[in-house]
Description:
This is DUF5362 family protein. It contains three helices and two strands, in the order ββααα. The protein is mainly α. It has one domain.
Amino acid sequence: MAIDDIGSDTPKGLTLNNQTLAFLREIAKWTNFLAIVGFIGIGLVVLMALFGGAFLASAASEFGGGTEAVGGAFFTIIYLLVALLYFFPVYYLFKFSRNMKASLQSKDESALTKAFEYMKSHYKFVGILTIIMLSFYALIFLFGLLGFAASGF
């Protein structure tokens, strides 16, 4: 299987040897497994969102809170947002796996390109999410320090 020249650093006519193809087959199997486990996890989070919110609202009403519907709805919305956020990297991983398997079986270069496009999308999504979360943690730490300094210590 040959790879076109993608940059000045890459030699023209780069080919994938049998060992590389075997590695890609194994990667496709593991990413398929991880994607399936991810979809199952998303399903469980959605179930938690639906039933956990209702359970939380029911439990809060037992103690006479009066705002139990708001707490249950907030719980449901947060869990559904987490499931939605988790869906995209799992979907990209699944599509990478399927396209990689197809490209290796049929030696289809367009499927190989599509597989790597999905892998790029997966890592780009995870990378951006990591930057957002690290920024969020830095803000929490900064506000914590400011709160500690304002308390007089």
